[in-house]
Amino acid sequence: MNTHAPILPILIPFAAALLQMLADRLTCQRVVGLLATALLVLVTTWLTLLADDGLLRIYALGDWPAPFGIVLVVDRLAAAMTLLTAVLGFAALLYASAGFDERGRHFHPLFQLQLVGLTGAFLTGDLFNLFVFFEVMLLASYTLLAHGGGLARTRAGISYVVLNLIGSALFLIALGLLYGTLGTLNLADLAHRLTLPGHDPALARLAFALLIAVFVLKAGLLPLSFWLPHTYSAAGAPVAALFAIMTKVGIVALLRVQAIALTPTIPDLLDHWLTTLAIATVVFAAFGVLTASRLRALAAWLVLLSAGTLLLTPAQANAQVAAAALFYLVHSTLAGAAFFLLAGVIAERRGEAADHFRAGPPPTTWLQVAFLILAATTAGLPPFSGFLGKLMLLTTLRAVPAGTAIWSVLLASGFIVMIALARDGCLLIWKPATLAAPPPSGAIAWQRATATLLLVAAGPLLAIAARPLAAYAERTASQLQAPGAYVAGVLGTSMATSLRKAAQ
Fold it and tell me: Which residues form a coiled coil (predicted)?
């Protein structure tokens, strides 16, 4: 069973999507989706525990070895990201099962295909299949974004589709250049062939530059990030919660390509410009947080702010920085998703006032407490996970070039976020509603309440388990920053030797 473990996170949602397409009844689709996503949580937890022994698990589809066949590669990073995807997917699907899925057709199969794209992108060992899983993920997200209809979603969907089509075209051009220059698209083989003579270094450099442009477009780096707050805030609450991990796909892909292929041979490709633009992204997002007029828009700006913070790390090529970034990535993804779900249930309780920052019927007590916990977690107040993640990042980024600028921006943005959350919380929860209509009657569906509380509780739980999680992040970063072990693990020592002799 362990042999086939790497492909299970892709097969489970794919099989669920096929079953749901065969079943017309919405109830059947809900049951299949929830069972499949719960199973995905169990399987990815098991895979994460397996991967913690430090060994690479290579799964060659059709028994064709790398670099000739399609391979899935499971290391600590890939396993942990699939687990994070599964947890997020389960919470979002549970929320959607309370009625959001009734607003359009084919929600459940598309949701499962979105999970296929996400988990496949984290597990694949070659760039062509990364492109394929990107496209699966994006095709599903186009329709999920429009689920429920409305002018705002239609407008957001058009710009989202156009930008991602441009990104897909650039991705294909980059892959064509890489294959034409180096004769392979397997990541480990690319890293190996870059060390050999005989290729055109200028073309290889151009191809990787295009590839990085695609990754930072997905991640939301300024000036390619104007679409993100508008698109995410227009999506339905459970869709936006799942979208919270999509920016991380680009960031993880960038971290992996930088560590395995670029650091040994093209170490200067990310120098200067990436850190500068990441700082600009953090500043831009902080002002966006300050000007947001409703909770879902604030959540979208927070997702962009976390993406800018994480994009400070790939250019450093440092295991300690990467470890801190991975801890912060988990915290920020769960907190961003929790804000989207919380905005949905608060809007449901406040009637016409919805989640706008203005006077209206106050949310129930448990929603007020949930907002306070989530705000404290996101603002980085001790002892929550946001404080620990930022402290780890600030500690490790202190000694890097531009460390002073990074410190100043991160501290200032944290202060701005704290002010915005305090102000918006007062408007949303405690401002008297003298002229507002009474709150809608009826309780919030248990699925929505459970899903929201699950993600809100993640912040305190991450803080309680901070020591083992930080240790896992350090082991993950050390494995990520060892490209030789990755190349030998995927290609095998004999294959690497034969390729070297063939090239000579």
Answer: none
| Token couple for 166 | 């441009």
Other beta carbons less than 10 A from residue 256's beta carbon: 23
Residue whose structure tokens are 């390619």: 224
Partner residues linked to 71 by β-bridges: 60
- Give the DSSP H/E element, type plus range, for residue 364: none
> What are the pLDDT digits (tens) for 201-253?
889 899 999 999 999 998 889 888 888 888 898 889 999 999 999 889 999 99
Backbone angles phi, psi at 57, to 5 degrees: -110, 115
- pLDDT tens digits, one per residue of 397-414: 888 888 889 999 999 999
d(CA 77, CA 403): 26
With H, G, I as helix, E, B as strand and everything else as coil, classify residue 59.
Answer: strand
Torsion sign (Cα): 474, 476, 478, 480:
negative
Cβ of 161: how many Cβ atoms within 10 Å? 17
Cα separation of 140 and 420, whole Å?
A: 33
Name 73's bridge partners.
58
Contact 245, 173 (CB under 8 A): no
Separation between Cα atoms, residue 288 and residue 282, nearest integer Å: 10
Cβ-proximal residues to 303 (8 Å cutoff; 6+ apart), any chain? 220, 228, 232, 243, 244, 247, 332, 336
Return the exposure string of 349-372: e unless at least 16 CB atoms fall within 10 Å of the residue's CB, then b: bbeebbbbbebbbbbbeebbebbe
C-alpha torsion angle, residues 144, 145, 149, 150 (rounded to 10): 170
Please give the radius of gyration of the chain, using alpha carbons only, rounded to the nearest integer: 22
Q: What is the pTM of this model?
A: 0.93
Residue 16 has pLDDT above 90, yes or no: yes
Neighbours of 31 (CB within 10 A): 16
